[in-house]
Design a protein that fits this description.
The chain is of the alpha/beta class. The chain is built from 33 helices and 24 strands. The mean pLDDT is about 95. It binds ligand 26Q.
Amino acid sequence: MTRRTPVAARPDHALIEGHTDNTVAAIRSGFLANLLFTQARLPEHATPNELYLALAATVRDRLVQRWMSTVHALTERDVRVVSYLSAEFLLGPQLINNLVALGIETEVREALAGLGIDFAELAAREEEPGLGNGGLGRLAACYLDSLATLEIPAVGYGIRYEFGIFDQEIRDGWQVEVTDKWLQHGNPWEIARPGIAFHVGLGGRTEPFEDVDGHWRVRWIPDRDVRGVAHDTAIAGYRVGTCGLLRLWKAEAAESFDFQAFNLGDYLGAVDQKVVSENISKVLYPNDALSQGRQLRLEQQHFFVSCSLQDMLRLHLLQGRSPDTFHRHFAVQLNDTHPAVAVAELMRLLIDEHALPWERAWEVCHAALAYTNHTLLPEALERWPVPLFARLLPRHLEIIYEINRRFLDEVRVRFPADEARVARMSLIDEHGERFVRMAHLATVGSHAVNGVAALHSELLRREVLCDFAELEPDKFTNVTNGVTPRRFLRVANPRLAGLLTEAVGDGWVRDLEQLRGIEARAGDEGFRAAWREVKLAAKRDLAEVIRSRTGVSVDPASMFDVQVKRIHEYKRQHLNALHVITLYNRIRYNPAVEFVPRTVIVGGKAAPGYRMAKLIIKLINSIAEVVNADPLVRGRLKVVFLPDFNVTNAQGVYPAADLSEQISTAGKEASGTGNMKFAMNGALTIGTLDGANVEIRDAVGVDNFFLFGLTVDQVGALRSGGYHPRAVFGGDAELHEAITQLAAGAFSRGDAGLFRPLVDNLLDHDPFLVLADYRAYIDAQDAATRAFLDTERWTRMSILNTARTGCFSSDRAIREYAERIWGVVPVPVEVA
Ligand code: 26Q
């Protein structure tokens, strides 16, 4: 990527002489000043939360300075800015990450120690912003980190949910959801901007009219009006002057409506209206693989998309530019279809509000937008019932119809007399009840469409969007996901980071390919011993977390076999459970067997309405209860369900894993990103040829990966040939026994009914081919066990995993987006 020369920072950005210096003294006085002037506290009277808020404010001061310099650099030049539209940003804790980015961790610890304050205690006060479900939201956060670090001008746009993803508690083995009140003690990282707010219409009707120039135009007369207020969070790049921006919209009632009702004497009605408006940004929908046609969800999508596009247009016009050059200054990325209504909203803004002709508006829209698909699961593809759409967004529906009319005319020209194809490609699904197909809208409205791993992109082209790929093959591309090594190595695993830096210098933090340099050290006995020390220390830390959170004590010398991710049948946590039962049975039948000690750790949240996923959580906990208490096992096998898997907890898990479970049914996991985080931290993968596992295996070497299971093509063949899970069940003694035990209540205190739905589903349908892959999985697990016995060999494999996963840095992914999709270049920023 070409890099421009830095714009000199305006000296007046050092607003207060020395205020944001990074010396211990400046940090200490900034901290005391913030404590005094923002918390009105003297150190001796402050609560830990007040101390935390003052510390965060001190760090934020330094971010703001960089942010002002970044804004200055951008206004000085004519640059294209990335707008990353995402309904989710799963940031995780900010404090430590920002200290590492700024390079002031030591100074901050020292400044606090000088005041008798323990840094770790303050850091533990932080509530993580859980504004996402899982992979997709976390990916957005990793991309913001890389954009800032690569000095690419970017804004993340989303929703400031008052309640993020629920906290998970486990009671009697069942998941219980607890509201995530992440804002209750204040959010020191955000800056509310009441001055940056936009009106968003909902409902009502449209009306044609002739404008002053005699053109026929359309007017939308909404019957609801909500205001979106910007809340900004600075995203620090790692050791650079650039600071990115995350702008989240909070919904508020538009005043005019309050007053209208008030004037009519309906004071309570006015308050009602306020409550209804504020509901829009109230809560994150906790489903991650099921699209339900809920009105509020569509309102959320339209709300944040409209605010974001209006904000971009405002900035664009502020620079004295014309609306028809919008696309030259903004590259707008749609993170899945959740913001796909942007296609219609940008058209509406350009045509209705800025009077562009349709054709010009379409060119602008198409050149500005690009779409990333994250799923092939049919039940996760977003569709909105046409009547709902018509009621909520009547003008947008008209625009979608017009886009569709013009698009299908083109299809008919390219493929004459092929009405079946036209029906397949239509933006409107007309088989029975009518739906707007959001993936089709996003595809037609964008200049680029990408999948998130090589296999997934291929399947997109081959299956889900095959007609579109046939029409416009060049529109389709792949950008394999990546994860940020700052958070998932440097911050999460400081010991390993230290060892890596000792070995190859610290350049790897911004250039992960440099980890290749440790490949040569895999043959070095001393290095391997140091490597094992680091892993063991992380396992001790996690063992302590497990003990304090679940009461289970685990042996840090045992193999830590970990599966952490959202709970879903396609991810097959129940396959993992069947393996555990199998191991347990082997011990029971032969208690004297030489058994390689294992700790099986599972974590993840289930969507609150997803009964089978919740039953799988209960299953893991039930197996844990039996296995952990059985004296015959003698502690050689332990099972742990780690509650409340979130970013904070994840940072303790990846460094401690020996074995990474990536066992989805081939063709179902778009990419996976946890798989990358584990491998980077030196865990070996047991996995199927699904998502990015394929590329991880290629990168680390086939000998350093435990492969099993049917391929996508074999899955297809098995299904079309007629799959009979009961036959598999009958033909495998260990499988037969495990499932029979489950059905008989062996893990549910004799209650044969408890796991019945799961057992019946596996035996009668098994939609995710758990039984079909069982034997291959067990064999791969046995191979992993043998490999683990050979400590030196395992360590070598572990080192090679870390050494060879440089390409899974989100920096690589962002460079690909920048060059191939966005056409953006870095703009270096000098700090004032
Ligand atoms: C849609 C409509 C209504 C309500 C909720 C939703 C919804 C919300 C979140 C649908 C899907 C999601 C999240 C999907 C997700 O996280 N997908 C994952 O994306 C990762 C990043 O690309 C991939 O690595 C994973 O493979 C993919 O499952």
